[in-house]
Amino acid sequence: MGPQHPSTHGVLRLMVKLDGETVTACDPDVGYLHRCFEKLAEGKTYPQVIPFTDRTDYIGPMLNELCFVEATEKLFGEAITVPERAQYIRVLVSEINRIGSHLLALGSMAMDIGAVTPFLYCWRDKEKIYSLLERVTGTRMLYNYLRVGGVRNDLPEGIIGDPSDGEDKADKTFWGFINYFESYVYPQWVALVTDNRIFQWRTQGVGCLSSADAIAYGASGPVLRGSGVKWDLRKNLPNSIYDRFEFDIPVGKENGDCFDRWLVRQEEMMQSARIVKQALKWLAENPGEIQGKVPRILKPPKGEVYHRIEGARGEIACYVVSDGSPNPYKVKWRSPCFTNLQLMPKLCPGHKIADVVAILGSIDIVLGEVDR
Amino acid sequence: MVAWWDSLSEITRVWILAFGKGTLLLVWGLLNFAIAMMLERKVSAWFQNRVGPWRSGLHGWIQAIPDLMKLWIKEYILPRNVDKPLYVIAPFIGFTMSILVWLIIPIGPNATSTNLDIGIIFIAAITGYDVIMIFMAGWGSNNKYSLLGAMRGAAQMISYEVTLVMSIIGVVMMAGSLRLSDIVEAQAARGPLGWYLFPQIIGFGVYLIASLAELNRAPFDLAEAESELVSGYHTEYTGMRWAAFMLNEYIHLVAWSSLAATLFLGGWVGPTHVDLAAMLGNVVNLFGLYPNGAGNTLLDWAANAQPHWFWLWLWGFFWFSFKTYLFVFLAMWIRWTLPRVRIDQLMDLGWKFLLPVSLGNIFLTGVLRFLAVEYNGVPLNLGFATIRLLGLWTN
Q1: DSSP letters along B123-190, please?
Q2: Where are the domains of chain A?
Q3: What pTM, to 2 d.p., does this model score?
């Protein structure tokens, strides 16, 4: 299957060995989208690397930026402090981005299983997220918004909105979107897809992954939590100011299947909405600085740092080595999709060919991030 | 005119009739294709918060014509190593067979192309050709996706054909005839509540599911499962050959819907002009407040009126089309709502659930029909006969 195939979400080649309809072996062949991100980063200054991180996982770019920006700040140590308001804005845009990313994951998985309409509903709502973030950052998809020491600009006036904002303001204010999401979008997904008998037939008992295997394969994110491991870096190793927010970690059952991973994503969107609401309340009351004091040319002291955060698809991490010059000596990007994709040979054998796309959809890969 | 017609020899008349009917059927098929395809695109757009085609004609409703013109001028790609005769013939077999279904369907009073007295058997026979079409296309294309799609399609259609015929047998038993016009008239005699939809509710449900599977439509569109097999058996086709597959799909959809309307919803039977006059008269008489009002005059007039046969035909045709497109819309509604089932689940559903249910339906119909005929010849009515059955036991 692939590299050109309707359900490989990009350019992925799956070498599938079949016995009739049953899959006996499956081997993903990656690398069609390799863009030398890590090597390119060595020739750029630190701020210039940020737009490149956007382009790895282009469905949830804010989280990538957050990872690299925080790694750089870690290199500086005490020299850079990020103002509190900037931290809250970072959390806000990251969580909004996570909702959008999970929406697309659900939509494309539903489409792989054969339901086309939910995918269009996913875009209807993702469009609203794009409009909101466009007002904040000026771009719709690849934001380049976070800066070392803060964010580029403060939230525009009126975008936070009022907790009473309804569906009509869903693409104008954050409160409008969150209310619209909780009262309309989420119940619609549950009613249209999750409670659908055919959808449950197709996903339950398909692509089972035990928690021991999930840990052994280095899976992370919803794939790991879908197998019943309660591991979320936002709770277990809080970056930014995630320790100040109240939220739960949804987990699936031991030996989780595609349906568990689906449920985890669905519930995580609601938890993200909870975080966003708390951040919005704080942001409405506390104006202030959004950019800490940073040198004009960023020259981190010699050293190396490994920083990891919870991305939409799992654990995003970067390893940055600084030799004291304006350019990073080495950047290594740990992409969750690449690691999760390794599960394909483990999960697919024994299932039907129709299940391969369901499993692929439940792993939720972005090829831009797999190949970097 | 009549004299001229009589002066022709027998064989000439047969040929003229055959060509005339053939042309009419072709035009009818293409017309229905255009309507159904546009409806599909518009309905899917309505379901998905889109507007759909908008440019050609009023709100894009004649998009089918430019589409066909585009396909007409496309290159016919012949991939390497295809089995050429199979590859070229396959789409047109399906197209022909889908047109042939229309041969026996009564689209109005006395308006059947060929009123076969073995109508149902004829339908069962020609649906078998669809399997051949899919398998020829899939095998001939020399492509892995096509072959997988063909294998799925063949397995699926053969199993669901059994179920489909079994679900219709209940109707045949009640009407006592395989001729479709007889089935319609048997329903017409007993009013809307006597339509076989109600006594044959089980058979109707089985028919709906099985015909969706037989048509290869979602949630049973495994043979062309887009996200798994690219396009299934017609992956390698281009231009008018591909268009022939689409024609086949939509003409078949309308044909099966019209069959559902004919078998279960009374076909072209609608309220007669007397019914309408009674309804209107009731309103004019303010629902009985003025029992001797103008409404009674209307009723008298309607009871004595003898409409021209053309108007009766048009009225029947309207109801036939209305019921048919009701089912077409239902099929589209289902398609744009549900995910696709897997091949093993499809087979389980067909063999382990639908087939036993339809066999049970035949048995039940037989028992009730026996009782109805045995005892005073009461018309078969599920509720009534059940009461009789219970009465037997208490006696």
Answers
A1: HHHHHHHHHHHHHHHHHHTT-HHHHHHHHHHHHHHHHHHHHHHHHHHHHHHHHT-S-HHHHHHHHHTT
A2: 13-371
A3: 0.81
Best B342, B345, B348, B349 member to test A by mutation, with max A CBs in 10 Å, is B342
- Report residue B239 as tokens: 């231009």
Cα-flanking dihedrals φ and ψ of residue A16, to 5°? -110, 130
The average pLDDT across B127-156 equals 84
DSSP secondary-structure letter at B380?
Answer: P
Q: Do B48 and A7 touch (CB under 8 A)?
A: no
CA distance A289 to A283: 12
Convert A62-99 to b/e letters by CB count within 10 Å (16 or more is b): bbbbbbbbbbbbbbbeeebebbebbbbbbbbbbbbbbb
Contacts of A30 (CB under 8 A, 6+ apart): A12, A13, A338, A341, A367, A370, A371
Residue B377, pLDDT score: 47
Q: How far is A128 from chain B (nearest CA, A)?
A: 14
Give the fold, CATH level 3, of A13-371: Cytochrome-c3 Hydrogenase; chain B (1.10.645)
ipTM of the complex: 0.77
How wide is the angle at C-alpha A284 spanned by C-alphas A278 and A287, nearest 5°?
A: 120
Residue of A274, A302, A309, A352 lying closest to A99 (CA atoms)? A274
Please give the helix or strand (H or E) that residue B361 lies within, else none: helix B355-374
Asked if B152's CB is within 8 angstroms of A202's CB, the reply is no
* % of residues, chain A, pLDDT over 70: 97
A158 vs B376 pLDDT, higher one: A158
With beta carbons less than 8 A apart as the criterion, state whether A372 and A227 touch: no
Decide if pLDDT at B381 tops 60: no
Contacts of A116 in chain B (CB under 8 A): 44, 48, 336
* Pairing relationship of beta strands A303-310 and A13-19 according to DSSP bridges: unpaired
Decide if B338 and A196 are in contact by the 8 Å CB cutoff. Answer: yes
- Is the per-residue pLDDT at B376 higher than 60? no
- Among B48, B148, B221, select the one facing A353 at the smallest CB separation: B148
Question: What amino acid is encoded at A54 in this protein?
Answer: D
Does residue A150 come out as left (phi exceeding 0), alpha (psi in the -120 to 50 range) or beta? Answer: left
